[in-house]
Amino acid sequence: EEELAVRWALDTANEFRRLGGQCAETGNIDLAREYFQRGKELYKRLAKLIDQTRSKAS
Q: Dmax of the chain from CA atoms?
């Protein structure tokens, strides 16, 4: 279950990055920035989750 959540978070963050790139290419900088920010926040939450999991395992 945890592995599935991690996979979903990575896939979603990558999708935000892809969409941000597409928006930037078409000149929609504000929307691109929003997608990039959402992906960044998701990566941060995922890193925090991984750190917590490692701490519990120690």
A: 47
